[in-house]
Amino acid sequence: MKKQFVSQLKKDEPVNDFFVISNVSQRPYKNTSKGNYLQLAVQDKTGTISAKLWSEGEETSRLSQHLSNAQVVKLSGKAEEYQGRLSIVLTEAPEKIENYESPEDFIPKTDKDIPKMLQNLKDEISKISDPHIKQLLELFSNDDEFMKKYSTAPAAKVMHHNFIGGLLEHVLNLISASKTIHSSHPELNLDLLIAASILHDIGKIDEYDVGLKIDISDEGRFYGHISIGYRLVASKIEEISEFPKELERKILHIILSHHGEKQYGSPVEPIFPEAVAFHNIDKTDASIQNAKQSIQNDNQERDWTYDSIQKRFYYKK
Ligand SMILES: [Fe+2]
Ligand SMILES: [Fe+2]
After folding, report:
1. DSSP state string for 177-223
2. Residues of the chain where predicted confidence (pLDDT) is lower than 50
3. What DSSP character marks residue 92?
4. Residue list, CB under 5 A from ion ligand 2
5. What CATH number does domain 6-101 carry, 3.90.1640.30, 3.40.50.300, 2.40.50.140, 3.10.350.10?
6. pTM for this entry
7. Can you tell me the distance from the alpha carbon of 157 to that of 155, in angstroms, rounded to the nearest whole number?
8. Whole-number pLDDT of residue 157
9. Distance from the alpha carbon of residue 170 to the mean position of ligand 2, in angstroms
10. What pLDDT does 64 receive?
């Protein structure tokens, strides 16, 4: 059982515990005649940290072939700070561990109650007044097998809500933000915004493989969640007789356009008010969550944290 978690590691303290590998690489020494040393990115449910072993060139290449992603290793070394960043400097080669018994040590999970969130979602669906939207959403929500996947799916690998139950948490935030936007723009179709909240990222249930860490699945690499979601929803709509064409177009358009711009993966850009509103609601929730997580995951005592994905500093105080 694991005792030392990434977020609690402190400078100059010994490290002796289990981590899962998320990247293995060989890096050149400053003095290039010494060859390469071993660099790992390792993680647990509280965060990611790099670990290096000042190994000889030959040992480095042997170890980097022997170790692979998503593998549990026991690390021994010390937490050291370099240029404001904490990393683990290893004193021994990582030890591979087969059949680690507590995968929950590695995969982060929402701190909210999943069955309660699921019930909230079902309550929201029951309040929808458009009969076709309601029927479509119920085709998903009455499918227990499907909802099991939906309610445990992460909403991302890195950016935001990248934990078990993250998708559901994100969706409930979007429903409540949709209601807020609707209160100042009552001419918008709230049922459509709620359907968009529930369906826009539905492809994420197949975009990720969740084992000891969250990874992109084969399906995710081939198609991405926008295409997977488009297909899932389009085929459910086909099961409903006389689903209005105009509504079908609008729902599918929001799935395709929710990333806002072609350069961010949307094949079409928002073309009606609900689509514009929804893109912004989605982006707002994702960016707020990204800022909160970047700050939470930084265990250094300092005022600023750098988010390498957003390429910006966040103020922690
Ligand atoms: Fe998305
Ligand atoms: Fe989203």
Report:
1. HHHHHHHH-TTS-HHHHHHHHHHTTTTHHHHEEESSSEEE-HHHHHH
2. none
3. S
4. 201, 282
5. 2.40.50.140
6. 0.82
7. 7
8. 84
9. 7
10. 93
